[in-house]
Amino acid sequence: MNDPRPLRGFWKFTAIVVTFHLVVAQAMAVSGSLHKHFHDRCDEPGHECVVTLMLQGGYENVAPDIVPVMILSEAPDVPVLAPKTGDCLPFHLVGGVLAHAPPRGP
Fold it and tell me: In this predicted model, what pLDDT tens digit does every residue of 54-90 receive, in sequence order?
């Protein structure tokens, strides 16, 4: 019988490897000596790895520039039409209520 999911073993192996990598990175972030064991130059100021990025609070070093937006309310350039004065009936009542009624049967 053929396996309906031939890559199932590959995906399990990939999930295990990624989980193991995350656990090791978390352990290195907790223990400075373990981090130093894997990286000889981890004390240099320009050193970047997943552990230093986790310790800095994120994976992106550059904070975005936040620019405040000023919204000024101005009068529109197009003249606003005033509503009609007088009797304004809705369109469905123009010819009377029964003007748009269905036809009478036999």
Answer: 887 766 555 667 787 888 777 767 776 766 666 666 6
Q: Which positions ≥6 away from 50 have C-beta within 8 Å?
A: 25, 59
Distances (CA, A) of 6 to 12, 16, 18, 56, 92: 12, 18, 20, 41, 65
Question: Cα(42)–Cα(36) distance, rounded to whole angstroms?
Answer: 6
Q: Find out whether 29 and 35 touch, Cβ atoms under 8 Å.
A: yes
Entry pTM: 0.47
Using DSSP's 3-state secondary structure scheme, residue 91 falls into: helix
Cα–Cα distance measured from residue 84 to residue 88, given in angstroms and rounded to the nearest whole number: 8
The tokens for 21 are 């990598």
> Which alpha helices (DSSP H) does 1-106 contain, by range?
8-30, 32-38, 50-55
